[in-house]
Amino acid sequence: MIADAIVVGAGIVGAACAAQLAAQGLRVDVIDAQHIGGGATAAGMGHLVVMNDSPAELALTRYARALWLELAPQLRPRDAFARCGTLWVAADEEEWAAAQAMHAAFAAQQVAGELLDAAALRACEPVLVPGMAGGLRIVDDSIVYAPTVAQWLLEASPGAAKIRVRCNTEAVAVDAHGVTLANGERVPAAQVVVANGMGAQRLVPALPLQPKKGHLLVTDRYPGFIRHQLLELGYIKSAHHAAGTSVAFNAQPRPTGQLLLGSSRQFDTTDPAVELPVLAQMLRRAARYLPSLPSLNGIRAWTGFRAASPDGLPLIGPAGDATPGVWLAVGHEGLGVTTSLATAQLLAAQMLHMAAPIPYEPYLPQRFAALNGVTERVQ
Known about the structure:
This protein is an alpha/beta fold and 379 residues long. It has helices at residues 12-23, 39-43, 55-71, 93-108, 118-124, 146-155, 200-203, 235-239, 276-289, 336-351; strands spanning 5-8, 28-31, 47-48, 86-90, 113-117, 134-138, 142-143, 163-166, 171-175, 178-181, 186-188, 192-194, 210-221, 229-232, 245-253, 258-266, 298-308, 315-318, 326-330.
């Protein structure tokens, strides 16, 4: 039976898109070169966070987080959802001013937060180094284990009976009428969605995506060591570096009692190997905030590649003249888990001509002129 839609990619974004289309009654085939929840989904932290680098990013992440909070009661213990909150740590007065500005911006958009002075911050997370200027706690930010949620979306969510998944199956070409596989097989469909991260560039070469390599490390179990996802205010500057290598303090308490540590960003490599100098730089940064960290036992480190767009926003919508008739859900960089559910709704609204829950225009791929046969960015 010919599918109503094929989704290339079984990570969290592709799974969310497939589940949303199936919930609307479509028969959906999902094709992935690896397995459900692999790729960037398996490599990430699973932080569900509202970010405000731009009005469009704030609108998308705020709506997306609300969808996750709504979905959370349906998730299983293995999905490791926890409403731990995010604590942005200000190291000095400049960053304390940034925390206050962020709090005001969030409050204007009804995002609940709480400013903590130095004493309150110390009481909230006693393992933090003394002398921090303060912090901003965003109470509803959460964490989740995205690979198993991707599996739930494809196999157990409402409408999952309409989804067929083909793993270890590589797509090598797409067009408006179907997908060509590496073995030469042609899989027809009425609609095609490309949602496989950096792999999308092999299918739509004009995509303006750049890989950002990141390192993570997980420790042994230390229950209660920290209670919130901890990030330094300097993380925002580091996250938007356009070249070279940068690190920032990012620590997450896993429901297992383990500590997940990040983060690094590299633009100058596509080698997936763990690079010990970068990992060491990242851990030294973390130890500046958590001085007892060197006494903990790290048990595994790994890397992943985030697919980053030039303006930091995902591409959600038609691929344009570059690949007519094909739909895109790519370029989420480090916010793919957070924004996956919202991405799926915005894509389905466009494909099925439904009302969108928030405006989708800021995320349309056509904002990049390369997708329309020219090289300059559309203003």
